[in-house]
Amino acid sequence: MSSQGSGVRRFSGLHGTTHFCLKPDGKTAFILDRAHHTFAQIDLTTGKETLAEIEAPSQLKNPQIWRRLIFLKRAARLYLIALIFDEITKIVYLVSFAEKGSLNFAVVCVYELPNNDKFTANWGVVQEDEKGRIFCVGSRKCPKRDNITIFDTVMVEIDDNGTITSLADNFLAKKQALTGKWSNPFVYSDAMHFLACEYRRRWDGDRINFEHMLNVPLNQKVIRSTVVDLTDNSGCWPAGSSFWSFSPAIIGERAYFYVSQKHHHHSTGALFYLDLKENNWKSWEFLTDDHVLDSYIEIAASEDGRTLCLSGNCALESCVEKAH
Fold this sequence. Notes:
36% of the residues are buried. The chain is 0% helix and 59% strand. The protein is mostly beta strands. The protein has a single domain, classed as Neuraminidase (6 Propeller).
């Protein structure tokens, strides 16, 4: 599903446990079907879907869990970056691929992330920030204390040749404990940001509280966090009890999220953005189409910020395409 300005276009996607990324020009989406290890490229102008082939990294064993995909632009080349968990060795890898022909990707570099005990399986975010730096983020609930969130953040460099290297102090945060329940991590302006996911009782039942954000600066030797109160300028708070895109698409000072909610006989979906300067929510566009995304939802933006693209499974049971 692609949104440009006020226009929304919908294309058939891949149904199931998928991951997705968008080429920087916003014209091509790339989708991985994790269950069948199938890769597809979708032309967002025509909707044409073509299967693609990716070289298997020889260092990795099977089975593997591909956790995140992003495209990076370096000089005149484009690289596909994948975060992959090897279930046999319990090692997490960051792998760069370069296009080899129009429908093939070849391995360029395989980088082993620092082993941080059994919780390495929770690495789930790869993001390029506004300065071009690459961050890998893992977060999880503390197994012994329900009100504690633990996160790790590693920064790496990817050069013009697609080679991945670590910085001198690449572990910016290691097994860092945060008080409270926090989720949806992303990096912006030299800090980690988390949205609150505390449940509370309201007249309409339990809902996740997205009225707070946690800011954790990454440029300090001693990690200190600050809770920021968020306000609502949209006239309608994002529905916390709904399905959210896990990582936002960052455009300038805005973090865009897709939110869908099930009602008695139908589902609704909407785009919200969090203004990271004003610390408030604003509704950007309500997608009233019946084909609402309700699982494996991911969102990405083109390099120029003019295109937002969504991928996920459709909530409409009668939908022939099953995913968009």
